[in-house]
Design a protein that fits this description.
single chain, 2-enoyl-CoA Hydratase, Chain A, domain 1, six-stranded mixed β-sheet, 26% strand
Length: 440
Amino acid sequence: MKKRRLVAVFGWFVIVSLLIGGLLVSEMPLKSADAESQEYQDLRLFTEALTIIKNSYVEEVDTKDLIYGALKGMLRTLDPHSAFMPPDEYKEMQIDTRGEFGGLGIQIGIKKGMLTVIAPIEDTPAWKAGIKAGDKIIKVDGESTRDMTLFEAVKKMRGPRGTDVTITIMREGWKEPRDFTITRDIIKIKSVRYKVVDDGIGYVKINQFQERTASELESALKSLKEKKIDSLVLDLRNNPGGLLKSAVDVTEQFLPPERLVVYIKGRSGEKTEYKTKGDRPYYDLPMVVLVNHGSASASEIVAGALKDWKRAVLLGVQTFGKGSVQSVIQLSGGSGLRLTTAKYYTPKGISIQNEGIEPDIVVRIKPQNGEAYPVIREKDLEHHLKNEQKPEENKQQQKKEEEQEVAPIQVDEENDVQLQRAIDLLKGWRVFREGFPGDN
């Protein structure tokens, strides 16, 4: 049986310096071709076209290139998170979970057929070169990015440390594109950062969910506990997701054993549940979780579980709304599929597909000096899956309203009103817990 792995990956956000792969092994059997032999008779149309191209095209063509191209086209007709991966791309995806390789350090996605920068990663070559969120990447080393897949773009922008790549950028307000020649570097992204932000208040930022994220979080919480914190801010903003297993392992550090974190259902309707195991200490400190439009997939799993169990207060703005899970399936010849095979549901049975998670307290950050980029969510992507619990209605009016939503390109801590509100909320909790001055 071919290998199948599940990924709660935010497929639209692809980090050039780090593409999250899938490492949760599933025992779901693959359906054999014989099971639908009638449908597969239609393959003769494909073989007829293939034979004609091989025999009659003006130049000699490689059969493997034709088949790979056909497979890529086939997967493009599905949802935006499914894709065919030739051997080199499949190998890249396996490597990516380590979080270290040569690249530029930008998050990219496809918007209206254009390769678009979601955000540069701080202190990387792209960041230092001045690449900004919302930039349209027109060319990579002179080659047009039109109809280029995310993985093809990633492959072209990655490379050995010290080598150069030229990307052609079109930015809002510019009259014509400009070239940026950037030197690749080793991108090392630590998935967890932490500090004490106020007296007794700890802060943990999870950038994405990798293999080591849960162990990094465990170390961070242990260190913060030694510093005598009595409450915590968990920052999941702009976290594009990652490994499903990692999301579950992170959540169980804040919930008692045997609590449902998430369950998934495939086309057959069979339900698979993921619960906390309790093989590590869990922390019951008062907690605020920060979320925004860039909180997606695995980060939505964590936020959804903590909200459903009333374990934390969610603060920020509506999350991205990716409620699907991908299986990474190895094919012959070293290639693979990243195929959407299930939807996931919060402990209360809620699908967040296209809807996202509404925070308990809505706090928006206004762009400073007009530097902003348009907010993009799952429902804005072509071929997105529908939410069976909430049919899409008034789509034109909804789209018109959402086109006006923008987010700041950069936010420093001084202007981070979401973080400040979280700190104030935890301080208020402390006052109520300890009593007001003068109380007897």
